[in-house]
């Protein structure tokens, strides 16, 4: 825009100031006094608009303009696979203190900030395996429901609730109609219980199936542009349901009993734990405490007939490469991962204490621990440091990839197969292990490695087993493992490769559901490598 002093000059168009040119044309010929008035009106109108916008901003989705950066900087620096720890469980239970998330007051500052930061873009839900298979869980809707409840109860949350306000809560709980959020794709965004004070989140704000439908795969967190956390909130609510209210899916009780009694969720006697190694002459750590490497086998590979073959392949490869390793045998128990993800923190900590004592007793803080299960891998590496167990833990694909790279293992035999690799959530999104399995497969002659379009690596769809879903019944007939299996089969692959025993079971079931078990193999990366080194045992789909 031209100044008052230059109004006598002709207005000329310039490409770099088209808007200024238009305003200058409109004001051409105006008096200096008129221009001054126009300037003041424009300034104060703009200032008033900004002030009004700032006042309504907290009540719109655009509030993320202010909260996004603080939310990103407030993101904990702990490993992605480490859940917030619960201390003094027994003492807090005696004092009737919260052990999880029951009401809004139980959310920490970062979790509250998450609610104000949501941009409502929907990327979390679009990548959520529960949401895209029509479960009641939608990460976006969950956040909006909690945010609406925060807005409804701000006075009580941040201004302090008066005694009469507390009475109002009791009255509203009994008299007011409940509008429970059923977070399905068709549900209204932001349904919430009408109350001026915080109420129990489950079932007043969220349907229990919302919380129990999560696979803890972290796809929502991986895709969120403003680093909102979901898993810690959901697990926190599960802790409250599990430990404070004893309200949880009945199928989990058998798994908990098995972990507590026999150290595995299948409740098979611990004397059977090392039977998978019969004939392989693998030493026990109790007989060879000086071994450089501990092979942590895990419950699945110890008791599941199909996964036992993977354990044998891994052991044969380690022996072939001359690795000095041993196993714990009957001293090994469940890491407690299923219990922690289900909210049974007490049982998890009991298993963690037991395992840390065993591992430290053998000096495993100075050894390398190899795991074939990503869940064991994540727990030993990321969760156990909170309980005095700091270990060098390596997933078997990473370890085997190193052996191949150093020439300790040479895959010389051709394996003719079109292979698609399925990324385990707890190996990939939790611990960023994407390349090692693919590197091994690419080193095998005859293998043509293909990828699922979009749904691969950090965007890979969960198999449906995580978050203790493996031990529960799905909420509807649209199963996550079927959805994932169809994605994998659409690549035209003849072999589906994985690196997780839970994924193997879910994908094998998915292949059987399509009646493709005769045409499609489901093999662990270690099994394919063993074939290429001519160490394989029969691994045809059963």
CA-CA gap between termini: 78 Å
Strand order of the largest sheet: 2-1-3-4
Work out the helicity level.
Answer: 40-55%
Name the poorly predicted regions.
1-8, 161-193, 538-542
| Overall pLDDT confidence | 89
Largest sheet: 4 strands, parallel
The count of strands amounts to: 8
Number of domains: 4
Radius of gyration: 29 Å
Number of helices: 24
Shape: globular
From the helix content, strand content and strand pairing, which structural class follows? mainly alpha
Beta strand %: 5-15%
Topology:
Blueprint: H1 18-27, H2 32-56, H3 64-73, H4 89-94, H5 109-117, H6 123-126, H7 139-152, H8 154-158, H9 163-175, H10 201-204, H11 208-212, H12 219-223, H13 231-244, H14 251-262, E1 293-296, H15 299-303, H16 305-320, E2 325-326, H17 337-341, H18 345-361, E3 368-371, H19 374-383, E4 392-395, H20 396-405, E5 417-421, H21 435-442, E6 447-450, H22 480-489, E7 495-498, H23 501-513, E8 521-524, H24 525-532
Parallel strand pairs: 1-2, 1-3, 3-4, 5-6, 5-7, 7-8
